Fold:
Amino acid sequence: MKNIVVFSENNKFILELFKDKNFKKQFSIKCIIASVINLKNLKDSFKNEKIVTIENFTKSNLEFIPKNKKNLMDVNNYKIFSKIESECIKMLDFSNPNQDKFTLIDARQLYTDSVEFILNFLEHFKPDIVFFTNSPHSFQSYILYKICEIKNIKTIFKREISLPLNYIFQNSILVNDDNFNFNSKKENSKVRIILKNYIKKIINNEKKNVQNIFLRLRNHKLIYRKKFFNNFYLFLIIRFLKLIPIYLIRYLKNLYIFYKFKNKDVLIVEDFIKDKNKSYKKSYTSKIKMDFELFLGDLRKFKLLNYYNHKVTETDFSEKFIYFPLHYQPEATTYPFGGNYVDQLKAINLISEYFENCKIYIKEHPDTFNISQLAWTRGDYTRSNNFYDQISNIKNVKLIDLKVNTFDLIDNAHAVATVSGAVGLESLIKGKHTLILGYPWYNKFSQAFQFKNHEYISSNLKTYMNKKISKSKTIKEINEIANNIFSINEVSNEIGINRIRNLIKMKL
Structure:
C-alpha cells in the first residue's frame, strides 16, 4: 500500500475516484489538501483521513505540523532550494493584480517560509505519492510539486489538453514519454470520435465551434466594441451601471442559500488576492473585494486595449512571417508549462534572432481583455504599456490586430511558434512548420520542432524548415494517443471512472 497526499482542487473528482473500495485499498490517504467546494461531502466520505483546506495550506496555517530545525533554510538547504526560487516566486502573479502587491523582500521571505513549511509537511505525512487534481500552478502547489521532484517523491497530476474538458495524466511538467507509447488499440472509441471532430473543425477552419464550449465564460465586447465604448468615462459609467444589479442579485441569492440551506460554499471565494499593506498570510479575499478588483481590472483592460491598438501595424500576407500568438497570463500554459519562457519576451527575442529575414507577427490573446467576470479575468495582471513597448522594439516584430483571423495567420505563415498553446497543435494538423518553446502536452509529436538550446537549434533548425510537414502523421499520432486521454464526462459513469483509475495505476 502506497502512502498518498492529495492536492484537491476538485473534491467531486476525488469522491468519485476513491469510492471504489478496491482502489481505495491500494492507497493509504495520509492527507487531503482540499478545496472548500463540496468540502462537507468530502469530510463525510473520508472520516478517518486528515483533511485541510487549500487556504490553510497556502498560508502555512497548520499548527499540527511539527517544526524541524533541519528544514530551516540554512546554507545547505538554500543551496538546494534556491535553484527553484525564481520560478516559484513567479507563481505569485496569480494573486498580484497590477503587479504592486509584493516587494522582492516580501516574495523571497514568503518563499523561504513556504519551503520550510512544506518540508515539515512532507516529513510529517511521508507520502510515496502526491496526487494533484489539476496541473500544479498555484504558488503553494507548485512549490510542493518542485520539492517532491527534488526529494524524489512521485507526483501525478491531471492536465487539460488542447481540446477543452479532455485530460491526460502526467508525472512531470516535462511531458513524459509514457503518454506517447503510440499504439493502434481502439479501446476508447468515444474519445476517438471527439478527436476526429476536433481535427475536422481545424482542417475546415471552424475554430469558433471548438471555442463555443466556453462561450459563457468569455465576453470580448471590448475588442468588438461599439462607438459608445470608445470613451473611457462612458465605459466606466456603463460598466458600473451594468454590474451593480448583477452584484446585488448575486449577493441576495447567496445570502438566501446560506440562511436557507446553511451552505457556506456560496460565501467562499476560491481565488486569492494579496492585500498590498498586509502579509500574504493575513490577506483575505471577500466576494465584495474580489468583485471590486474585477471592476478595476475591467478599467485597466480598457486602457491596455487602447494602447495595444495604438501599437498594431497592418498585416501583409504577402511578406514572409512567423506567427506567434501571445498566451493569456497568468495561466498554466506558461505557469508552469512555459518553463523559462513564462516570460514571453524571451521567447519572442529568441525567435527573432533565428529568423532575421522574417517578420514576427505577434497577436495578443483575446482573453487578456475578457470582461465576463466568470473566468480568465486576470488578463491585466501581467500586462502593461511597457510590455507592448518592449515587444514593438524587438527587431522585425509586428504587433497585429486582434481581429485578424487566427487560421488565416496559420495558413499564410512561414511557420507558427508557441510556448505551449493549442495553436501549435492546430498548426501541425494543418501541416505547418511548428516551433515549440515550452512543454505542451503534444511536445513529443514528431512533426514539431523543439527550441531546446542554441546548440540544438543551430544544428537542426535549417533541416527542419526544409522538410515537408506531414499532417497525416500528426493526425495518426493524435489518434494513437487517444487511449491516454479521458473526458470529464467519464467521471460521472462507472465505466469511465474505472478507466481513469486504470490510467492512474499505469502512471504509478
